[in-house]
Amino acid sequence: MDYGIGLLNYHGCWDDAAFAEDHGFSTAGFVDSPLLAGDSFVCLGLAAQSTSRIRLGTFLAIPSLRDATTMAAGITTVNRLAPGRVFMATGTGYTARDTFGLRPVAAHKVRDYALTVRGLISGEEVVHRIGQAERPIRFRHTEGLYVNTEHHIPIYVAGDGPKALRAAGEAGEGLIVTLKNADLTGGAPDVLRADLAAAGDAARESGRTFDDAYVMWSTVICVLEPGESAISARALDHIGAGAMMAFHSYACHPEIAEYLPPPIRDRLEIYEREVLDRLPVARERIYQEVHAGHLAHMLDGEAAVLTEEIVRMTTLIGTAEEIAAQLRALEAAGLNNVTFWIPPHLTRSVISDVEEHIMPLMRNAPTAVSA
What we know:
The structure is a single chain. The protein has 371 residues and is an alpha/beta fold. The chain is built from 14 helices and twelve strands. α6 (162-171) links the parallel β7 (155-158) and β8.
C-alpha cells in the first residue's frame, strides 16, 4: 500500500509535500479548483524543487479549465523539474465545476482529454479543437531546455459512476475512486472490485488492458483514540469537511436527494435549516457559498448536521486497528494507494499519525489473499 496526500495549493504546501516524503508518503496530488485554491502548477513547480523522491501530479485536472495543450505543456514542464516522478490525474470535476454553477464535464470528454494529452506528450500528432475549428497539431521543442517527454508520465482517470469508469478503462493507466457509492462500514471492497471490473471490461473492449492499473482511493482520515466518538470536536476538525461533501452536492444539485442513502437523506431538513438558510446568498447562487470550506474546515451549522453513522459511512475513521483492517480489505480488492485530504492546519500532524499508527500495522499484517 502506498500513501498519498492531496493538497489544496495553500502557501507552503510544497514544504508539506517534502514533509510527507520524509515520512514515508509516495504521492502528492495538487487540486485544480481555481475558485477555491491556489494554482496547481505553481505549487507543483515549487514542490518539484522541494522534494526528490515523492511522485507529484494534478489531482484532478478538469478538461474545461485547461486546454489539453496547456495541460500537456504544464505537466511536461513539471516533469522537466522532477524527471520520472510526475503523474497526471483527471476527472469530470466536482468543486472545480460546482463553484462555477456548472455540472460535471461529460465522461467521454474526460476520455478524449486524457487521450489528447497522452498523444501530445508521446510525440504524436493529434486533432485539436477550438470552437468549430479542428487542426492537426503536435509538440515542438520537446528536447533540451523546455519540457521532458522522455520520462513517462502516467495518466490516471477518476471515476465512481459507470460512464466515468468506462472512460478510465478506455484512456487511463490508473483509476482514482472516492468510493462514494459504498458504505465504508461494510461492502467497500466489493464496490471497489466491481469498479475495477467495469473499467477492465471497457479497456478490453477498446483493445487495451487494465490489469496493471494503479488504483488510488481519495478520502479523509482520523485516527481515533480508544473510546473517542466519531463526532467529537477533534474528529470533526479532521474529517467533518469531508463528511459534508454529499450535502454540498445536494445543495448544488437538489435532484440527487432521492438517491442519497437514508442516513444522509434524513438530515437534509436539518442541513437546510442550520446551514443553507443562513448563507448570505439567494438560493440560485448557493453554489458560491456551500463549498467555501471544502476539505479544509466546516461551515457554521454543519456540525449539527452530522451523525456518528454518517461520519463512519463516509470517511476513513476509527482506531488505528480498525483503519488498518479497512485498508487491508481494500488492498486485497485491488487498491494500491490511499490519498488523504487533510485540513491545511493539520497536515503534518495527520501525516505523523499515519506514519506512527497506520503504517506499522500495514507492514506487519499477514499477506492478504484476494477473493
